């Protein structure tokens, strides 16, 4: 593998890791309990 292929592989792996981390954070913060509590805070 040459230098360009190595850089492309590293950036691809980093992009996948960031995407997984972002997905995990959104799944954690956008749980149904949090969303219901957020919506109820405006109706009171």
How would you describe the overall organization of this protein?
This protein has helices at 3-29, 32-43. With 44 residues, it is mostly helical. The chain is rod-shaped, with a radius of gyration of 19 Å. The protein starts with a helix and ends with a helix. The mean pLDDT is 84.
Tally of DSSP helical segments: 2
Can you summarize the main beta sheet?
Answer: none
Mean pLDDT comes to: 84
**What is the chain-wise order of helices and strands?**
HH
Based on secondary structure, the structural category is mainly alpha
User: What is Rg?
Assistant: 19 Å
Helical content stands at: over 70%
Unreliable segments of 5+ consecutive residues:
none
Number of E-type strands:
0
Query: For the terminal residues, how far apart are their CA atoms?
Result: 61 Å
Strand content: under 5%
What best-fitting shape do the alpha-carbon axes yield?
rod-shaped
List the helices and strands and how they pair.
Elements: H1 3-29, H2 32-43
State the main characteristics.
0% strand, 44 residues, 2 helices
Task: Offer a concise description of the structure.
With 44 residues, this protein is an all-alpha fold. 89% of the residues lie in helices and 0% in strands.
């Amino acid at each position: 593998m040459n230098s360009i292929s190595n850089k492309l592989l590293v950036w691809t792996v980093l992009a996948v890791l960031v995407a997984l981390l972002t997905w995990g954070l959104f799944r954690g913060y956008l749980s149904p309990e949090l969303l219901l509590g957020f919506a109820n805070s405006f109706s009171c």
